[in-house]
Every structure is written in structure tokens, then in C-alpha cells.
Amino acid sequence: MFTGIITAVGTIRETSAKGDLRAIIACPYDPDQIAIGASIACSGVCLTVVEKGGSAGDAWFAVDVSGETISKTAQNQWSAGRKLNLEQALKLGDELGGHIVTGHVDAVGRITEREEVGGSLHFAVTTPAELSPFVAPKGSITVDGVSLTVNAVDDHADGSCTFHLNIIPHTAEVTTLGDLKAGDAVNLEIDVLARYLQRMEKLRR
User: Which residues on adjacent β-strands are paired with residue 123?
Assistant: First the structure.
């Protein structure tokens, strides 16, 4: 379980094929605080640590990424040099600063607009039709692992929607969101509460 509050930005140092894709991710964590078998969200994808090393502030950990995961996440995310938003799993007693995030990607969206507004960034993100019922103004959504609040939603005739986000300078600086541009693909996870409400409404009908 995660909160969508990013604690570090890592970089994929190298990848190799070992049945699944093995990715070595460099990060500023303390390796003594990373347990083998622990879960780390990598740009919104919950993965299991299978190796680790390095020193405090200059660590690395390895994860195995299945073909299914690769097919369901943003294109080219699992390539050497790619930066990833990292969050270690929530512990009992930790502050829930964002919202409840599972680390399971529901769909891949696309940035259709990036605009500087004041000191912040405005993003428009278009989603597949199956995600539209779960996106609501002032609701929560996870974009590349970052917990964000939806400002507004535009529905389209084909069932898809475009939602709008405001990214404050701090968030743009400490995550990969500041590097995004129009046309980029992003991992999306809907609010788990919206998922259950939709299911309850479907059964009620």
C-alpha cells in the first residue's frame, strides 16, 4: 500500500532478460532500509525488490518486471536511463499525505496539453473510455505514482475523457512530472474508493 507521495526519483541503470525483465534502479535511498522482498512503487507500479546494494545516498535495487506489467504500463518506461518516481511501501503509523494507492496501473493515459500558468504547470490528460466513470472533479488520481487532485473533466463522444491537473513547482521539481510534455504516456491508477463505489452502483442497478 502506498500514498502517492514520492520520496525519491530513481534511474534505471541497466536492464537484462532473465525470463522476466530484470531492471537495476539507482536511487538515493539507504540500502540498509530496503528489505529483500519489500515493495517499492516505481512510477506507480508496485514491484518487489530481489537484490540491493550500494551505500546510503548512492544505492541500487533490482526488480523483475513481467511481460504483463510491461504491456500495461507506459511505453518505453522500462529502458535504461529512464527516470522513475519511487515510493517505499506505507508502514503502520506513517502519515497518509496523499490518498490510498495500490500500485496497480489501471490504464495508460496521454498528456495532450502542457501549459505554464503562473508558477505552476497545467496538464490535460486523456484517458481510455473504461477509466472515464472513475475520474471526477476534485477527486484523486495517481499519475506515474504521484497522488494528484483532478481540477476538471471533459467528456468525449467516444466515451473517453480528458482531465485537468495543476502541478505546483515543488511537485514538478521533486518528481518526473516536470519533465513531461504533450504526447507522453503516463501510468494511471484510479482512486480505490471510486472503484468500489462504481461496483456498488452497478450491483444496485
Answer: 114, 165
Residue 202 pLDDT greater than 90, yes or no: no
Which is more confident, 34 or 94? 34
CB 39 within 8 A of CB 46: yes
* Interval 148-161: pLDDT, tens: 999 999 999 999 99
CA atoms within 13 A on the CB side of 142: 35
Question: Is the per-residue pLDDT at 93 higher than 70?
Answer: no
111 lies in the same domain as 198: yes
Is residue 192 domain-resident?
A: yes
* Claim to verify: residue 139 and residue 192 sit in the same structural domain: yes
